[in-house]
Every structure is written in C-alpha cells, then in structure tokens.
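Moderator note: this is an archived Q&A kept for reference. The question asked for a predicted structure of one protein chain; the sequence and the answer are reproduced below.
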Amino acid sequence: MAAAGTHAIHKHAFFGSMAIYIGTAVGAGIFSIPYAMAQFGFFPSLFYLLLLTAVNILINLFYGEVVLRTGNDCQMAGYAGKYIGQWGKRIGFLVLISANYGAMLVYAVGVGQFLFELLGPYLGGSPFAYSLAFFAIMSAIIFRGLKAISGVEMGMSALFIAIVAFLAIIGGPSVHWDNFSAFHPQNFFLPYGVILFAIGAVSVIPLMKKTMDFNHQLRNFKKSIVISSLITFAIYLTFAFVVIGITGEKTSPEGIVGLSGILGKKVLVIGSIFGFLTMATSFLTLGLVLRHLYEFDYKIPRLWAWLLTCIVPLLIFLLGLPGFIQLIGIIGAIIGGLRGILVIMMWQRAKRRGDRQPEYSLRLPLLIPILLYLVFFAGLIYQAAYSLGG
C-alpha cells in the first residue's frame, strides 16, 4: 500500500509538472496561430512551427539545466545575476517582467472578449468590464500560491486536450484541402513572433522543478520538459489544421470565432469556454512567476510582491493596448528573442559555475547555440524594425 501510494504521489508530481507548462503555454497564442499561419500559408508556416518548437525545446532544456545546477530557488533575474552579473540580472528582470506582464495583458484582453461572447447576450456588459472582473478573481488566486494553481492546471490541461480533440472530431468532415493551398510570401515574418509567443513558457521551468522537487522526482525533469513541449506542439498543430481547413483565408484573428458560422453557435460557446480556461490558467502561472521573482530574487515581502504582480498590468490595461495580433507578435519576437538569448548565455556559464551536479546535462556542439543566437537576433531585429516602421 505504501509503495502504491508513493508511486501515485510521484505520478502526480510528474503530470502536475507537465500541466504547469501546458497550462501556461496553451494560452492566447492558440487562437492567433491559425490566423497567422493562414495569412502566410499553412504548409510554409508549418516549417515555422516545427523549427520554433525544436528551438523552444532546447531553450527549455537549457533553462532546466541552469535551474538544476543552482542550489537556491530563483527566477530569471536571480539566475542571470548569478551567472552573468549585475547587468545580466537587470536584463533578466526587464525581460521577465516585460514578457509576463505583456502576456498577462494579452490574456486579460482575450478573456474579456471571450466572456463577452459567452455571457454578454445574457448579462450584458462589455469586454472591458469582463476583463476587469477577470483581473480581480485571478489576482486573489495568485495570492494563494503554487498549491492552488497547480491543482487547477492539472484539470485544465486535460480539458484543453479534450476540447481540441472534440473540435477536431466535429470539424473534421468540414475540412477542405483547398483551404491549405494559399500562399502569401509578403507575410513571411508574420507567424514568427506569434508562434514564438504561443509556444514559449520557459519562465515556468523553475515552478516545474519546484513541483517535482517536492516529491524527489527531479530525475524525470528532462522528460517532463520534453513531453510537455511536444504536447503543446500537438495541440497547436491540431487546432490550426482544423481551423484553417474549415475557414481558410477567412480565418479570424481569434481563430475560433470564424468556425461558428460553419459549425454552429455551439462551437462558439465551447470555444469561448476553452478560451477563458486557457488564458486563465496561463495568467495564473505567469502571475505566480512574477510574485516569486519579487519575493525570491529581490526579497520583497509577499503582500507587496503580489501587489506589484497584479496592479502593474491592470494599470497598463487601463491605459489602452495595441491590436491583439500586433501585441502578440511584438512580445513574441522582441521579448521572446531577448529571453532566448539570455537563457543560452546563462546555460553556457552555468556549465562552469554551477554549484550542484544536475540531474541531466546537455552536451551539444558549439554550432547549436550559435545558430540559436542567430535565430533570436534575426527575429528581434526584424520585429523591431517592422514595429518602428509600422
């Protein structure tokens, strides 16, 4: 009985760790990916999705090794400070808060729209009002901490997979192969930032480690990172295939909305519930990462750390935002690129300066990190030039 109980605890830790990643990665990006891929072309964009998934897995594994080589709990600013220096800590802080605050803003905007579609016909109101209510409820859960969030993530991750499978089943007969033939080379760069934003959840790697460390399961940490990253890829690919296969070039920026005209209003209801759940779980985890950043890396008391986490994005939200797809692209390409570069630098230095033996250690030729640097630098420069030019 004791052995069976121990096995169940270990299994819970493994799946709980993966759920944290999947629940964070599968957020607003899932609804913008079909639109971005349709604007360039499904099969050319598939190359982006495959390439950036491979890049993302490597970045996740790099950061996982950094976390394992470090004896104390930190967030990105703390790890950057340890392995790169004070300037690295400052950049790590700016990158993490920009990425997480930006993502939380995207989720708040998206949830407001989905709740308005779902509840507006019955309760009235506006997307803005629903976003404010969302901020209030999620902030209360973030204050409670990791145990409250990890339990929610496990149930929601299973539900994500079930809903995507359901949409694939009911939408499969309406898929037309002609909808995959479009190609618009002038939109070559559009999917880059959107996909990078969607699949990236590297900031939750320390939370994944903490979840597995509670139950002495760090030997399975690498497996958890790889499997959760691949499941995220499979969810995105399935959803994009169904949406583009049904709506083609008429795919809406919110992805699911365009399906309702073909598959009926029930799809809009299911999609709105799905949208709310995906963005809510992502908001919670990224909010907790920020709270831990202020608590662990900067020794700010819990109450003030929580206020900084939740009040700042709320104030920015009240000031107004750029367009949904535009915001995702900027966050993904610029902030995601900087974060990727920082993680590679930390990984290279942690190999020499780490203070504990990690449960796994990547051995890669120097060419791999050089190519990753080039991918991130190219995307960062192009998106910056595009944003300034637009």
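Archived answer notes: Residues 58 and 82 are 21 Å apart (CA to CA).
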